Amino acid sequence: VAALPASAHLARAEEVRDWLAAHSGDYLERLRALVRVRSVSADPAAGPGMRAAAELVAAELRDAGLPDCEVAETGGHPVVLAARRDAGQARPTILVYLHYDVQPEGELADWSVPPFEAVLRDGRLIGRGSADDKGPILMLCAALRGLAECGGDLPVNLIVLVDGEEENGSRSLPAFLDSRGDLDADLVAISDTSMLGIDRPSLVLATRGTAGLEVELRTLDHDVHSGKYGGAVANAAVVLAEVVAALHDENGRVAVPGFYDRVRPVDEATLAALAASDPPEQDWLREVGARGESGEQGLRVHQRVWTRPTLDVVGTWSGHTGPGMKTAIPAVATAKISCRLVADQDPDEIAGLVAAQLRRLAAGRAEISVRPSHGSRPVACAPDSPAAEAAVAAYEWGYGTRPVLIREGGSIPIAATLAERIAPVLFLGFGLHGQQEHAPDEWLSVRNFELAANALVMFLLSAADLPRARTAST
Ligand SMILES: [Zn+2]
Questions:
Q1: Is the per-residue pLDDT at 289 higher than 50?
Q2: In this structure, are residues 50 and 77 in contact, taking their beta carbons and an 8 Å threshold?
Q3: Where residue 472 falls among pLDDT bands split at 50, 70, 90?
Q4: Ligand 1: distance of its center to the CA of 411 in Å?
Q5: HEC string of 295-354?
Q6: 315: how many CB neighbours lie within 10 A of its CB?
Q7: How far is the CA of 133 from the centre of ligand 1 (A)?
Q8: Which of 84, 248, 211, 87 is nearest to 160 (CA)?
């Protein structure tokens, strides 16, 4: 159980809250200006927008009290890097990670408003990137400016790292981190995850990792006439279906030898905390019109999504896929397989285990070639770490409700990289379930913007009391 914020922090946090109440409207306008800049990192034509967005973010960070801020070059889109280290050696250094790039807008016809006009409607700011992840950038700027206006000093040493390629795999960031020796921190706070709702503030304690494979299975030199050879030769589509179906047992467990060997058991206290968050299990299934369930029998939906690893076929192709029929037996079938991993599974090891099992299953019937694709490590933060306890107290201050503890079934690949190279990770996200990030009509709640800024203020104040180094555990 986290301690309540010290009264010294309360007085200043209350002062900043008053300041934010008067100025969050101004910061919302600044956010709208940033949303209007189209910074789609995956679009090769978006270069000028990327740079303009980076410059705008840098200007906001300088204005928020971080004059030492640069738009730094990488092998790809620039990162924005700001630092302020005048809180003293005794105080911890927090690195806050955000991203200014956004997902492609997709089909304009699917939007009810233009995606880059930052339209305000019914308490929502609608626009690509409003929630993911430009909103949190301006929430942080508002919090920092509020602290500067009320009491001056920043209570912690701070590094703000704003990625320009998060939505495109953060491809340039590892090399950028290698090239910079000055990014030492005691804690990495990633502000890019979502809560269950504005009335259900939530602290994310873990994200899953990934391991992907591309599989090509061959049963013949070429497709053959199904009349002349049908009933005599192995059909690649059928063999592939049998092979992938054998990757799960009758209880829904992944039937790959060694797959679960490194899965770290989740302790009872964490399981109880996750269950107590009252996760919207049946809604998860209803919202997508699920006709049935999958996964390990005997586990609730949230346990399967938050605490267990998975193996899924995410793409498959074989034979004639054009219109009409073609009566040929396919020689080749392909599958794309994607696993979600939990601590302490290793993506390379899992890809190797799955590949070996695929070869065993296909032996004697088909040749199989397997190519690993994406991979990232899972990341977890202990609920009883000082950083998590400070975050719990901060959300409680900002939202007026004690946050629930949840996990995230998805992955933030750069989180593992930051945890390995810089410091333990804390997920300090303020998104809301249902805000349609990556989809048409992405929106940010105007009310949430101010509440989140208040939570950030309390976190920065109480983070000053965190021990230096190892403030959370991975
Ligand atoms: Zn994001």
A1: yes
A2: yes
A3: very low
A4: 11
A5: CCCCCCHHHHHHHCCEEEEEEEEECCCCCCCCCEECCEEEEEEEEEECCCCCHHHHHHHH
A6: 12
A7: 5
A8: 84
What band does 474 get if pLDDT is binned at 50, 70 and 90? Answer: very low
Cα-based distances in Å from 254 to 204, 242, 353, 357:
26, 15, 11, 11
Confidence of residue 382 (pLDDT cuts 50, 70, 90): confident
Q: Please enumerate in sequence order all residues whose Cβ is within 8 A of that of 322, keeping only pairs 6 or more positions apart, or say none.
A: none
Centre of ligand 1 to C-alpha 211, Å, is: 20
pLDDT tens digits for 340-368? 999 999 999 999 999 999 999 999 999 99
Per-residue model confidence (pLDDT) at position 120: 98
Give, as one character, the DSSP assignment of residue 139: H
Local structure of 35: helix, strand or coil? helix
Asked if 35 contacts 129 with a C-beta cutoff of 8 angstroms, the reply is yes
Asked whether the predicted pLDDT for residue 459 surpasses 90, the reply is: yes
β-strand partners of 71? 80
Residue 283: what pLDDT? 86
Residue 404 CA to residue 389 CA, distance in Å, equals 12
CA of 17 to the centre of ligand 1 (A): 26
How far is the centre of ligand 1, averaged over its atoms, from the C-alpha of 197 (Å)? 17
